[in-house]
Amino acid sequence: MVPAPHPSPATPDAADSRARLLSAALRLFAENGFAKTSIRQIAEAAGANTALISYYFGDKKGLYNAAYAEPLGGPLQADAGPDGNSLDIFLEQFLTGFMRPLDMGDQVELCMRLHFREMLDPTGLWQQELDSEIKPLHSTLIRLLCQAVGAPAPDDDIHRLALAISALPLQYYAHRDLIQQMAPQLLNDPECLQATTRRLIDFAHHLIAGETRRRQAPAGDAP
Q: Mind listing where the DNA-binding region sits, in residue ranges (predicted)?
């Protein structure tokens, strides 16, 4: 018997097979971790042949990398405009990109679990994300905040301000269960989620304005 050929990557069947493998991998890796999840388990959960994992992802590590990054839409990206000095553009892109995955519904829960598991039982992917994505974004934010508040160089309060801004969207991930009980519309209504993102951008600007006023206060008056 001649085995059926693999579906072409451009066909609907191929897209469905790849999506099912990715979905099964996300769930199993989030539940069991990389080491305790086998290719066979993923293929069985997806109703697919193990050969398709090699076909679409190369190997188990390639599938893990895809399950870690792809459901969230890829790396978080933000720039500072054409001249590289626009804090407004950076904050809008940064906070909008951070909040966007929340419209994925329950799947975002699995993504969070996988990311936390990677931090606790690292395969190297978390460190790679730190080096290639998180640190550069933080460095850009630090530079723009120094310009905004008139700081000649980063100090502890600039880092505190940057971390406070980054924490604004993180609360919607960390407290997702509480939000679903207390104010579910904040996560479940797309228009409400967009409004929340706009408010976070406003809140970030208010934090920056407050730090600017604190630094400009006469000596002895600043808290």
A: 38-57
